[in-house]
Amino acid sequence: MLKLCGFRISNYHNKVRLVLLEKGIEHDEDASCRPSQSEEYVARSPMGKAPFLELDDGRRLTESQVICEYLEEAYPQKPLLPRDPLQRAKVRELVSHIELYLELPVRRTYGFVFFGRPVDEAVKQAVEKDLAKGVRALKALAKFSPCIAGPELTLADCAAFVHLPLVSLTTRLAYGRDFLDEVRELKPYLQKLGERPAFRQVNDDRKAAQAAAQKK
Length: 216
What we know:
The chain is of the alpha+beta class. It folds into 2 domains: 2-74, Glutaredoxin; 85-215, Glutathione S-transferase Yfyf (Class Pi), Chain A, domain 2 (Up-down Bundle), CATH 1.20.1050. It has 9 helices and 4 strands; from the N terminus they run βαβαββααααααα. The chain has helices at 11-22, 39-42, 64-74, 85-106, 110-114, 121-141, 155-175, 186-193, 197-215; strands spanning 2-5, 27-30, 52-54, 60-62. Strands 2-1-3-4 form a 4-stranded mixed sheet, covered by helices on one side. A hairpin with a 5-residue loop joins β3 (52-54) and β4. α1 runs antiparallel to α9. The radius of gyration is 17 Å and the shape is globular.
């Protein structure tokens, strides 16, 4: 049986988990795998990152989007990519924009937002400029009709659901405003998406994992 290895606070772990649940793929989960540079861990995930996927035959895959693409190809019964080649590419384009131009830039503020490090104003200014371009791109590419890439649920929805609320939270804490408020369709879309059983389960499990971590 497939095994997803990572931790439930991770948005990238949760993206893969959403794909597994939405596609109805039977799997196990090891939610205790935190990134590590130990020899044992690197033997399983070469960059020491999470998540990674252990296949039935003992082989492994790393990088969340690679894992999602593998699951789409290996388990095509419930597709999360359109059949049309251009529309498939547009879904991938949206995932790339969300991760590279919104999720990744905002990570540069985590040190002072979540871990108590001194605020770096130069970093704040640079991230603000990058996020402005990322928000502009999201407004241009997102369809919300009703899903983010069109009428059907896709891998882009799995990415949006785990990444964009974190962008909203981080910008509120770092800048005193939610940069994604400009995308007026976003909050109703995320709320509706969260009503799907798989999305609700992943979100509830993330909250429970965060609560447990705060008690330690």
